[in-house]
Design brief:
With 503 residues, the protein is of the alpha/beta class. 40% of the residues lie in helices and 16% in strands. This is Bifunctional NAD(P)H-hydrate repair enzyme. It catalyses: (6R)-NADHX = (6S)-NADHX; (6S)-NADPHX + ADP = AMP + phosphate + NADPH + H(+); (6S)-NADHX + ADP = AMP + phosphate + NADH + H(+); (6R)-NADPHX = (6S)-NADPHX.
Length: 503
C-alpha cells in the first residue's frame, strides 16, 4: 500500500482521467466503491445525509447518494454551495441523482440545514477534499462545527473535510470522523500524530487507478505483511550459524542491565546466528543466564560504566550500541571509538543517541551503514527543535536529517517512519498501545540487529524489523495479553508467532 501527498494524488488522478481516458468514470467508480462500504456500516432504516461541496468530493457524494437511493436507502443531500460554484463534472452527477428522484437541500435556500443534520443517523462527509490549505472559511466552518457537535455517525469520503492531506499544518478546522473511506491511497496526514485521530477508523478502496501509476508517483509506502512475505529471506536447509550473522551488542551499565539483556535476547529470538554481548562485569553476571546462547565479554569500565578500550569489532556483521550504556563523559569517548572502528552496519539507540548529539559530524565519515532509532523526543533533541514542530512534519525532518548525515532513521511512534539516506520512506503500522512501556525500543533494536544481518537490503531489514516488532505485540494482545499488562519481554516471546503466521 502506497502513501501519497496531495500533489501526488492529483497527478495520479489527472493521468488516469486524461491520459488513460477514464474521464467521468473515475468519479463514478469512487462513489460506487464508497457506497458499497457505507452499506456495510448502516442499517436500512437509518436516515443518511450526504453533505456535498463544490469539488470532486462533492461529485463523489452525488454518486454515493444516487447509488444508495437506487438501493432503497433513506438518503438526502445537503449542498453547501450554490449551483454556479459546482464544477461541470459535479453538475453532471447532481443531475443524474435528481433524475433518480433524489432530494437536495441548498444551504443558502433554507434555515432547515441544522435540523436536517441533527436528525440524521449517518452523515456522509463529502464536503471538501485534499486541496484544503489553512482554515476553512464561513459558512463551511460553521457546517463542520455543527456536524461534529450534532451529527450522527460521521463517515468521511477520502479525507475528513478541512483536514490537510499533507504534513506541516498547524491550524485547521476539520470534521472529526468516526470512519473514513480513503480513495486509492492513504494521504500523509493519516500517519501524523496531530491529524491521525480525525480519520477515526479508516480503510482504502480501489477505484481503477493502475497500481503501477500509483507506485511510480508515490514516494512512500506501508511496510505491511505483503512486503514482509515478499522480502523476508527464506532459510536454506543447509545453512549454518555463520550464515545468519555475527552480531555484537555494546551497552549496559551497573544500574541498567535490563534493557541490554532484552536487546541481546531479541536479536537471538529474531534469528541472529551468533551473538556477542559486551558490558560491565556486574551486568554480565546478572544477565548471562537470561540468554545462555550468547557469548559475553567484560569490557573496561569505571564506576559501573563502559569506557573506550579494545572491543571485539573484527569479523562482525552488525553492531548495536548505546542500550543502557549511560551518559558519562568517558562513555562518549566509547561512542567515538565505535563510530571510527566499526566496519559493518551500526545501530545507535538509547543513550547512544544522547551521546551522539555532539558527534553528528562523524556520521558522514563512516563507510558502512549507520542506523539511528530515535523516538520523537530523541529526534527533536538531535534536530535541536521543539517536539511540536517535529510531530507536525516528521516525514520532512526525518528525510532531511537522513540525507544530510547519510544515515537510516527509524523514527518510532504509533506509526513508525523508516527513512533511507537517499530519502526513500516507509511507514510501519503494526503495534498497539501495549508497546508504550520501557524496554519496547530495546527489543526493536535487537530485532533490527538480527534482521540487517540477513540477506536483504538495510532498508528492507528495517521495514521487516518494525513489522515483526509491532505484529508480535498485536498477536500477543490477540492471544491473551492486554495493552496494560503487555511487557517488552512478551514481545520477544511473540516473535515466533509472527514467523509462524506470516512466513
Amino acid at each position: 500500500m502506497f502513501i501519497v501527498t496531495a500533489k501526488e494524488m492529483y497527478d495520479i488522478d489527472h493521468c488516469t482521467m486524461e491520459k488513460i481516458g477514464f474521464g467521468k468514470l473515475l468519479m463514478e467508480n469512487a462513489g460506487r466503491a464508497v457506497a458499497e462500504k457505507v452499506r456495510q456500516k448502516v442499517n436500512a432504516a437509518d436516515k443518511i445525509l450526504i453533505v456535498v461541496g463544490p469539488g470532486n468530493n462533492g461529485g463523489d457524494g452525488y454518486v454515493i447518494a444516487r447509488t444508495l437511493q437506487n438501493e432503497q436507502y433513506r438518503v438526502s443531500v445537503l449542498q453547501v454551495v450554490p449551483d454556479q460554484k459546482l464544477s461541470e463534472q459535479v453538475q453532471f452527477f447532481k443531475q443524474l441523482y435528481l433524475a433518480c428522484n433524489g432530494t437536495c437541500l441548498l444551504l443558502d435556500d433554507s434555515a432547515e440545514w441544522k435540523q436536517v443534520i441533527s436528525e440524521a443517523d449517518v452523515v456522509i462527509d463529502s464536503l471538501l477534499g485534499i486541496g484544503v490549505d489553512g482554515l476553512v472559511r464561513e459558512p463551511l466552518a460553521s457546517v463542520i462545527a455543527f456536524i461534529n457537535e450534532k451529527g450522527g455517525k460521521i463517515v468521511s469520503v477520502d479525507i475528513p473535510s478541512g483536514l490537510p492531506a499533507d504534513e506541516g499544518a498547524e491550524a485547521f478546522t476539520s470534521i472529526q470522523a468516526d470512519e473514513t473511506i480513503v480513495i486509492a491511497a492513504p494521504k500523509t496526514s493519516v500517519f501524523l500524530p496531530h491529524t491521525a485521530n480525525y480519520y477515526g477508523n479508516w480503510e482504502v478502496v480501489s477505484i481503477g487507478h493502475p497500481q503501477t501509476l500509483i507506485s511510480e508517483n508515490a514516494a512512500c509506502f506501508v511496510a505491511d505483511d505483503v512486503f514482509f512475505r515478499t522480502t523476508m529471506p527464506k532459510r536454506d536447509v543447509n545453512s549454518h550459524k555463520g550464515d545468519h550473522g555475527k552480531g555484537l551488542v555494546i551497552g549496559g551499565c551497573d544500574n541498567m542491565p535490563g534493557s541490554f539483556a532484552m536487546t541481546v535476547r531479541a536479536a537471538l529470538r529474531t534469528g541472529a546466528g551468533l551473538m556477542t554481548a559486551v558490558s560491565t562485569e556486574k551486568v554480565i553476571d546478572r544477565i548471562a543466564c537470561l540468554s545462555p546462547e550468547a557469548m559475553y565479554q567484560i569490557g573496561a569500565s569505571e564506576k559501573g560504566h563502559l569506557i573506550a578500550d579494545d572491543l571485539p569489532l573484527d569479523d562482525k556483521d552488525g553492531v548495536a550500541f548505546g542500550i543502557g550504556v549511560g551518559r558519562e563523559t568517558k562513555t562518549a569517548a566509547l561512542l567515538e571509538s565505535v563510530l571510527q572502528e566499526t566496519t559493518c552496519p551500526l545501530i545507535i539507540d538509547g543513550d547512544g543517541l544522547y551521546l551522539l548529539q555532539n558527534q553528528l559530524a562523524r556520521l558522514k565519515q563512516r563507510n558502512e551503514p549507520t542506523i539511528l532509532t530515535p523516538h520523537m523526543g530523541e529526534m527533536a533533541r538531535l534536530l535541536e527543535m521543539d517536539i511540536s514542530d517535529l510531530t507536525r512534519s516528521p516525514f520532512r525532518y526525518a528525510r532531511e536529517f537522513a540525507e544530510e548525515h547519510h544515515v537510516y532513521v527509524v523514527l518510532k511512534g504509533k506509526y513508525t517512519i523508516i527513512t533511507s539516506p537517499d530519502g526513500n520512506q516507509a511507514v510501519s503500522t503494526t503495534g498497539n498501545p501495549g508497546l508504550a512501556k520501557g524496554g519496547s525500543g530495546d527489543v526493536l533494536t535487537g530485532i533490527i540487529l538480527a534482521m540487517m544481518m540477513q540477506s536483504q537490503s538495510i532498508f528492507q531489514s528495517l521495514c521487516n524489523a518494525c513489522f515483526v516488532h509491532g505484529m508480535s505485540a498485536d498477536l500477543q494482545v490477540q492471544s491473551g495479553h492486554s495493552y496494560h499488562d503487555l511487557l517488552a519481554t512478551d514481545v520477544i516471546e511473540g516473535i515466533a508467532s509472527v514467523y509462524r503466521t506470516f512466513s
